């Protein structure tokens, strides 16, 4: 059971949220992000490198230099520097798509919403060791739910339902591993959902 909880936590790591969102929207709602099917794989790989691999490399360097004692960032104080570094990476990525690459306005808005989610994790971390897993998962659900109203066909219905189910597994896994208290899970969940939902309502 513990192995399954760890597997869920790894597969649905918060840094993978953007990659999963791009894949889901690229497959089920391609007109939103304006990604041609033949370009989806390349764009997903690009986003994976910037929003997952680059932050992971930063974490490895912080571990090598002794800035953090563990990759799991269990100590709230140790989270500050890595979280700020990751936030900067996400904001720079969003900036590049807004002002340099000019790929798609909606794509840039999506990156901006995710960047705000990351920034929120940084701010809340000063007060509470929130569950970033819960924040990211519910942020994804918050993004997908209102988009169901923006598409004429129910193409996003099942992916959204699947995202809600997976989010339940993620929360259960974090509680089972004793990584967070119910309060930390709740604050992360509510914060993530509100930002994801209102971000989509505002920008889209």
Keywords:
single chain, 204 residues, mainly alpha, 0% strand, globular
Description:
The chain has nine helices and no strands. With 204 residues, the chain is mainly alpha-helical. The chain has one domain. It is globular and about 45 Å long. It starts with a helix and ends with a helix.
Please give the structural blueprint.
Layout: H1 2-11, H2 17-28, H3 30-33, H4 37-64, H5 76-101, H6 105-125, H7 132-150, H8 157-176, H9 182-203
Helix pairs in contact: 1-8, 2-4, 4-5, 5-6, 6-7, 6-9, 7-8, 7-9
What's the rounded overall pLDDT mean? 91
Point out poorly predicted stretches. Answer: none
What's the domain count?
1
Kindly state the number of beta strands.
0
Q: How much of the polypeptide forms β-strand, as a percent range?
A: under 5%
Gross geometry: globular
CA(first)-CA(last) distance: 40 Å
H-E order: HHHHHHHHH
**Helicity, as a percent range:** over 70%
The major β-sheet equals: none
Helix-and-strand structural type: mainly alpha
**Count of DSSP-assigned helices:** 9
What is the alpha-carbon Rg in Å? 16 Å
């Amino acid at each position: 059971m513990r192995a399954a909880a760890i597997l869920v936590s790894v597969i649905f790591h918060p840094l993978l949220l953007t990659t999963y969102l791009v894949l889901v929207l690229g497959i089920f709602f391609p007109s939103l992000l304006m990604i041609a099917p033949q370009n989806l794989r390349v764009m997903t790989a690009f986003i994976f490198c910037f929003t997952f691999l680059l932050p992971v490399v930063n974490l490895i360097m912080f571990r090598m230099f002794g800035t953090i004692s563990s990759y799991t960032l269990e100590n709230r104080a140790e989270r500050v520097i890595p979280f700020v570094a990751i936030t900067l990476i996400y904001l720079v990525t969003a900036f590049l798509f807004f002002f340099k690459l000019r790929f798609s306005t909606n794509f840039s808005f999506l990156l901006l919403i995710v960047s705000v989610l990351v920034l929120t994790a940084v701010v809340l971390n000063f007060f509470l060791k929130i569950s970033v897993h819960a924040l990211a998962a519910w942020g994804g659900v918050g993004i997908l739910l209102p988009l169901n109203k923006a598409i004429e066909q129910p193409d996003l219905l099942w992916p959204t339902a699947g995202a809600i189910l997976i989010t339940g597994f993620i929360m259960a896994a974090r509680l089972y591993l004793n990584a967070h208290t119910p309060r930390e899970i709740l604050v992360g969940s509510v914060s993530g959902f509100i930002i994801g939902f209102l971000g989509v309502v505002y920008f889209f």
